């Protein structure tokens, strides 16, 4: 019988893997199962162009439906997998049917972390949102009316991108962040304060070092009316027409876990995307993999990682072994300003900036042992690829030259 | 119908039908052409859709904007006819265009 690869999850990683197998000439059956109604689509524009109404729904699709048919990829939307039976190599679906696999790839992604506050149990709140899927944005758009007050809980990229779109759409925006500065887990204080400034200039209000104490609901417990909080111990109440929660992602590991596979901040895989079961792989946001870049294990939530991890898995499934050597990178877009980030700045000893913070064109390099371990490039796209090379080569640099725009970045490595 | 021919670095050719209004990058993705990755989804942020536009076709394209120029300036294996295929929109005037792909979109 023909060999069958079943991919659970039709996000960016799952879709990329299905396409990658065909690109590499895989001859067996490829089944791509997604629980949403859509073929794989781009998520980054959800909190930017799509929310703003500038990107049409069909332009979010990574490939048209017709491509999957044409290349023999059996895409099954609206299909939810309930369990994996490793002994018989079958999965069971919500509709009660079972599906056999020779190789199973878990590309299950993650879901938005819900707000954990007392008193919210059982409440189905119509104006409390998170952004992970197309449906989430479609639900939230109705409240995107000029004059409405949007309270955003969480000062990470999703919260900030939505804040930018919201003030541009005429909403009043207040963003609450538990840490003393924005993006505190992913960037240095220089970039945090810059980002805060560009948002304040557009009218976004912030409450930093802020503890959310509770949501005030209407009598029917269907609508949030207000948010109570405390900044440095000083209590405050904000009226809210809608509330967005952007406090991170929970990887979807339940299927793997119930099947007895190791899970530790993601489904544990080796450098070839394999779990301990030789018939099961895991890729993308849901997978915890060894990293050549950090030397440890890592779980990354990003499109470049989803694509790269899908490439690794495709090679493995084709009988090759090609571990990932990619450097993590991310991008964001706020008010048309391009932010490109490469590497992970955790543990840096020195931050060197290059260019003009005032003119919104600068790069921040994070150094450890005289080497560039990460960089944030803002409005200077020509420097991004060079920064990527500095991070990947781990070359020693001279901090003074690095900070001098007169010295070409390509000649910095000692 | 507008046809575009992609030629991989190893010489393998893919002649595909392109839809007017879509980007050349999307055309490659829709037809599973290897060698175009398109990590950033077409927003000129990653240079993983870099291609070389053949002689004669360059003049038929609008010149790159600042964002594209910036990404090209520091991309790998750059040539004078380098473009980001995500920034080129398909028009009937491009029928027959040849786009050659660099050795790799991701490695040095």
What does this entry look like structurally?
Chain A: This is Ferredoxin reductase. Chain A: Keywords: FAD, Flavoprotein, Oxidoreductase. The complex is a heterodimer of chains A (about 425) and B (about 110). In chain A, the strands form 7 sheets. Chain A has a 5-stranded parallel β-sheet. In chain A, helix 6 links the parallel strand 10 and strand 11. Chain A folds into 3 domains: about 5-110 and about 250-320, FAD/NAD(P)-binding domain (3-Layer(bba) Sandwich), CATH 3.50.50; about 130-245, FAD/NAD(P)-binding domain; about 335-410, Enolase-like, domain 1 (2-Layer Sandwich). In chain A, helix 1 packs parallel to helix 9. With about 425 residues, chain A is α/β, with parallel strands linked by helices. In chain A, about 25% of the residues lie in helices and about 30% in strands. Chain A has helices spanning about 10-25, 50, 55-60, 65-70, 135-140, 155-170, 190-200, 255-260, 305-315, 380-395, 400, and strands at about 5-10, 30-35, 75, 80-85, 90-95, 100, 105, 110, 130, 150-155, 170-175, 205, 210-215, 225-230, 235-240, 240-245, 250, 265-270, 280, 285-290, 295-300, 330-335, 335-345, 350-355, 360-370, 370-380. The mean pLDDT of chain A is about 95. Chain B has about 110 residues and is α+β, with helices and mostly antiparallel strands. Chain B has a single domain (about 1-100), classed as Beta-grasp domain (Ubiquitin-like (UB roll), Roll), CATH 3.10.20. Chain B has 2 helices and 5 strands; from the N terminus they run ββαβαββ. Chain B has helices at about 25-30, 65-75; strands at about 1-5, 15-20, 50-55, 80-85, 95-100. A 5-stranded mixed β-sheet of chain B has the order 2-1-5-3-4. Chain B is globular. The termini of chain B are far apart. The model of chain B has no long low-confidence stretch (mean pLDDT about 90). The interface of A and B includes residues 44 and 380 of A.
């Amino acid at each position: 019988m023909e060999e069958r690869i079943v991919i659970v999850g039709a996000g960016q990683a799952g879709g990329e893997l299905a396409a990658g197998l065909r690109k590499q000439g895989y001859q067996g059956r490829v089944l791509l199962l997604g629980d949403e109604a859509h073929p794989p689509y781009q998520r980054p524009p959800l909190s930017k162009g799509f929310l703003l109404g500038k990107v049409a729904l069909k332009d979010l699709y990574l490939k048209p439906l017709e491509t999957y048919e044409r290349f023999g990829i059996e895409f099954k939307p609206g299909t939810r997998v309930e369990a994996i039976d490793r002994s018989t190599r079958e999965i069971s679906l919500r509709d009660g049917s079972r599906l056999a696999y020779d190789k199973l790839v878990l590309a299950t992604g993650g879901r938005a972390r819900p707000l954990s506050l007392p008193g919210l149990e059982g409440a189905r709140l119509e104006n409390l949102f998170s952004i992970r899927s197309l449906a989430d944005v479609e639900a939230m758009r109705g409240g995107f009316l000029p004059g409405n007050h949007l309270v955003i809980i969480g000062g990470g990229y999703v919260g900030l991108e939505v804040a930018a779109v919201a003030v541009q759409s005429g909403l009043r925006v207040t963003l609450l962040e538990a840490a003393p500065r924005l993006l505190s887990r992913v960037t240095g204080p220089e970039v945090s304060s810059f980002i805060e400034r560009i948002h304040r200039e557009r009218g976004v209000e912030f409450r930093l070092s802020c503890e959310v104490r509770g949501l005030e609901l209407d009598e029917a417990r269907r609508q949030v009316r207000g948010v109570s909080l405390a900044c440095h111990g000083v209590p405050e109440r904000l009226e809210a027409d809608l509330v967005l929660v952007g406090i991170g992602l929970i990887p979807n590991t339940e299927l793997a876990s119930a099947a007895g596979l190791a899970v530790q901040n993601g489904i544990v895989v080796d450098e070839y995307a394999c779990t301990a079961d030789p018939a099961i792989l895991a890729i993308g946001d849901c997978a915890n993999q060894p990293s050549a870049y950090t030397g440890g294990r890592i779980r990354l939530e990003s499109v470049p990682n989803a694509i790269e991890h899908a490439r690794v898995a495709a090679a493995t499934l084709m009988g090759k072994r090609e571990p990932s050597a990619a450097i993590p990178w991310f991008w964001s877009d706020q008010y048309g300003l391009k932010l490109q980030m490469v590497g992970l700045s955790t543990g840096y000893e020195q931050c060197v900036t290059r260019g003009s913070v005032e003119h919104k064109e600068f790069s921040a390099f994070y150094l450890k042992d005289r080497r560039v371990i990460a960089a944030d490039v803002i409005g200077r796209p020509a420097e991004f690829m060079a920064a990527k090379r500095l991070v990947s080569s781990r070359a020693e640099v001279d901090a003074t030259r690095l900070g001098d725009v007169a010295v070409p970045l390509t000649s910095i490595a000692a | 119908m507008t046809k575009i021919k992609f030629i991989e670095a190893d010489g393998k050719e893919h002649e595909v039908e392109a839809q007017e209004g879509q980007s050349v990058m999307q055309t490659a993705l829709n037809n599973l052409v290897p060698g175009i990755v398109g990590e950033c989804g077409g927003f000129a942020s990653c240079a993983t859709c870099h291609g070389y536009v053949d002689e004669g076709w360059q003049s038929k394209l609008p010149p790159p904007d600042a964002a594209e120029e910036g990404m090209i300036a520091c991309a790998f294996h750059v040539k004078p006819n380098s473009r980001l295929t995500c920034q080129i929109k398909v028009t009937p005037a491009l029928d027959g265009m040849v786009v050659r792909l660099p050795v790799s979109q991701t490695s040095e």
